[in-house]
Amino acid sequence: MAKKPQTLAEKIISGRAGKDVYAGDITLVDVDVTAVQDGTGPLAVQQLEKMNLVQAANPERTVLFIDHAAPSPQKDLSNAHQILRTFSKKTGAQLSEAGEGVCHQRLVETYVNPGEVLIGADSHTCTSGALGAFSTGMGSTDVAVGIALGKTWFRVPETFRVNVTGTFPKGVYAKDLILHLIGLIGADGATYKALEFGGETVENMTMSERFTLANMAVEAGAKAGLFETDEKTRAYLKEHGRGDKYKEIKADKGATYERVIDIDVSKLQPTISKPHTVDNTAIVTEIEGTKIDQVFIGTCTNGRIDDLEIAAKILNGKKRHPDTRLIVVPASKDVFLEAVQKGYIETFIKAGAIIMAPGCGPCVGVHEGALADGEACLATQNRNFQGRMGNTEGFIYLGSPATAAATAIYGVITDPRKVI
């Protein structure tokens, strides 16, 4: 009897379960990579201590990231960091120290390969799905058990296929596409589904653009955001010293999808998420002129070198608006070094930006860059929930690096097509 065709999610999970599984099946799988960060990691360690399981089944690929508050701004967070450092020494788990970068960027740069399973105690773990891995966020306790035993369980998700066609118009980017998709299906429109991205436009995307889409899959409620592997995947892995880890991962023709969504990017315009939900979207021209007190360029969504290049080209020779602060945070140390070498950091500084150490920066609201009461920020991050940047009285808009850079110049939400 012929094998039933499989989606990407079904195929990858089957590979780690050791048997063919399909949407709705509950299965035990081997975990390749486990990750925690300084917000969720201490709880995971404490849970292992309670279970008398202070161990790492695969220490070389168990990674503890200090990125959310790095360097630490206060003593209780310093104590949390110390818990991770101690666990690393006890178990041999890998420690990504303050200044190394955001966990999701570091994971794709160094640790995750096609066909693997990554579980992380952070919702945006789905970023690594752009490498053809089943990567998903879980609670601290679930990840703790995965760290100790090297296994976890899944209910295999149903899949939405997102077919993307057309050519991006001037001023429109992958960030605009994912905001458009989330606005289309809603913040809970893909709850516990896998979003499988494909089509000619996806095939032509850079890895950086794919990471942006995968990163924000969870903002539609998705369990994972997945991409087939191709020569661009292979080149990315080779560039980062893992060329031998390349594996072809393709969905089967005839696979069963719960829903198919077709998007022609040639019809898109620069898009914004308005406070206080990601699916509260609008095209930039509808809210152009809204006063912005702070612009933040960076994060695991849009802090890669391609993103910094887009912003630097717009800001080159220009100054931020005197009433608008500009914060730039490279996603990793490698990105930071490349941005220095290419002159982007100098461009940002001359434009009046504050450059922070690689990490999450203001995104989660436990570090520098918190908003004052009533202030508005336009950020390239992935969430704009009330209180997200450290103040429930603040307002967060989400946009592309181009929209952010244009807004920094004029001090109000600005259509990037005016400056590109």
From TrEMBL:
<protein>
    <recommendedName>
        <fullName>3-isopropylmalate dehydratase large subunit</fullName>
        <ecNumber>4.2.1.33</ecNumber>
    </recommendedName>
</protein>
<comment type="pathway">
    <text>Amino-acid biosynthesis; L-leucine biosynthesis; L-leucine from 3-methyl-2-oxobutanoate: step 2/4.</text>
</comment>
<feature type="binding site">
    <location>
        <position position="300"/>
    </location>
    <ligand>
        <name>[4Fe-4S] cluster</name>
    </ligand>
</feature>
<comment type="function">
    <text>Catalyzes the isomerization between 2-isopropylmalate and 3-isopropylmalate, via the formation of 2-isopropylmaleate.</text>
</comment>
<dbReference type="GO" id="GO:0003861">
    <property type="term" value="F:3-isopropylmalate dehydratase activity"/>
</dbReference>
<keyword id="KW-0028">Amino-acid biosynthesis</keyword>
<keyword id="KW-0100">Branched-chain amino acid biosynthesis</keyword>
<feature type="binding site">
    <location>
        <position position="360"/>
    </location>
    <ligand>
        <name>[4Fe-4S] cluster</name>
    </ligand>
</feature>
<feature type="domain" description="Aconitase/3-isopropylmalate dehydratase large subunit alpha/beta/alpha">
    <location>
        <begin position="23"/>
        <end position="284"/>
    </location>
</feature>
<dbReference type="InterPro" id="IPR050067">
    <property type="entry name" value="IPM_dehydratase_rel_enz"/>
</dbReference>
<keyword id="KW-0479">Metal-binding</keyword>
<comment type="subunit">
    <text>Heterodimer of LeuC and LeuD.</text>
</comment>
<dbReference type="Pfam" id="PF00330">
    <property type="entry name" value="Aconitase"/>
</dbReference>
<dbReference type="GO" id="GO:0009098">
    <property type="term" value="P:L-leucine biosynthetic process"/>
</dbReference>
<keyword id="KW-0408">Iron</keyword>
<keyword id="KW-0456">Lyase</keyword>
<dbReference type="InterPro" id="IPR006251">
    <property type="entry name" value="Homoacnase/IPMdehydase_lsu"/>
</dbReference>
<dbReference type="InterPro" id="IPR036008">
    <property type="entry name" value="Aconitase_4Fe-4S_dom"/>
</dbReference>
<dbReference type="InterPro" id="IPR015931">
    <property type="entry name" value="Acnase/IPM_dHydase_lsu_aba_1/3"/>
</dbReference>
<dbReference type="GO" id="GO:0051539">
    <property type="term" value="F:4 iron, 4 sulfur cluster binding"/>
</dbReference>
<dbReference type="InterPro" id="IPR011826">
    <property type="entry name" value="HAcnase/IPMdehydase_lsu_prok"/>
</dbReference>
<keyword id="KW-0004">4Fe-4S</keyword>
<dbReference type="InterPro" id="IPR033941">
    <property type="entry name" value="IPMI_cat"/>
</dbReference>
<feature type="domain" description="Aconitase/3-isopropylmalate dehydratase large subunit alpha/beta/alpha">
    <location>
        <begin position="285"/>
        <end position="411"/>
    </location>
</feature>
<dbReference type="InterPro" id="IPR018136">
    <property type="entry name" value="Aconitase_4Fe-4S_BS"/>
</dbReference>
<dbReference type="InterPro" id="IPR001030">
    <property type="entry name" value="Acoase/IPM_deHydtase_lsu_aba"/>
</dbReference>
<keyword id="KW-0432">Leucine biosynthesis</keyword>
<feature type="binding site">
    <location>
        <position position="363"/>
    </location>
    <ligand>
        <name>[4Fe-4S] cluster</name>
    </ligand>
</feature>
<comment type="similarity">
    <text>Belongs to the aconitase/IPM isomerase family. LeuC type 2 subfamily.</text>
</comment>
<keyword id="KW-0411">Iron-sulfur</keyword>
<dbReference type="GO" id="GO:0046872">
    <property type="term" value="F:metal ion binding"/>
</dbReference>
